[in-house]
Amino acid sequence: MSGLLADRPARPAAPAPAGARPTARLVPGLRRTATALAGVAALLLAWELYRAFGPVQGLEVGGQRVLPRADPRSMPGVGEVLATLGEPEVAVPGARTVGVAVLSAAAGTLRMAAGGWLLGSAAGLLLAVAMQRSRLLERGLLPYVVLSQTVPVIAVAPLVAAWGGRLALTPTLTWQPWTSVVAVSAFLASCPVALGALRGLQAPGGAEQELFTSLAATRRQTLLRLRFPACVPFLVPALRLAAAQAVVGSIVAEISTGTRGGIGRLVLEYAQQATSSPGRLYAAILGAALLGLLAAALVSLLDVLLLRRGRGPGGNP
Fold this sequence. Notes:
With about 325 residues, the chain is an all-alpha fold. The protein has helices spanning about 1-5, 20-55, 80-85, 100-135, 135-145, 155-165, 175-200, 205-215, 220-255, 265-270, 280-305, and strands at about 60, 65. The protein is globular.
């Protein structure tokens, strides 16, 4: 009997319901969204609790302030900040509201950050390819790529603006203030892409490389057919980090160079009005924070387009 049971072919598994797999892919996304919303809610709750029970004058230890003041002028309530978005920016009939001003400034910063992200990503990818091709270049350039991120951006931005003011790209094209912002943004965005792409390009093991060598594949074919596909899982998180870095670089460069039209300049202007309207400053800071999240979320679409492209309805390649 046992032999007959052993020789009996196994019963094929019942097919999964048609809606099971899409639901399984939807649950992790909903869980991540719920976790992010819970984190934001916890942060807002902590803010309100500190305003209610924190020391009004803050806390100083050894002459250094370790806890901020909890008075309404230093820490406006969440409801006050949200109400500020609907207030007119200036006391003139028909003036735009603070919320519209924040959205307009965020859009301007997003455009400059997108330009810096594209330039920085292209430069970082080319640098990674060069370092992967030459071990000498990797040893010579990699330490400087890492050290470049330790340079204070607030000190680099005025230098870039000063150097750029002496450049004439073409007889009719001159260096504009927004060009300095894009250059600083690209500078910050290039390092994560270079490091992530280099790690991905070096990911294929010896067996894969020997297979391409046995097939007489050229270096270009190996790069396009082996190294670039292996680089995608490393490159997408690097591009997401580079997007956030590009936004930070754009905001800091706008503040350092005084470039108008962006959220960085708006934060500087509202900081001068913080005594009379503290909610405006926090509204601009909130817009800058949401802008960084939006940039990272837009780049996350590459995860769907690149990592899941080519998968069939069942999820198999």
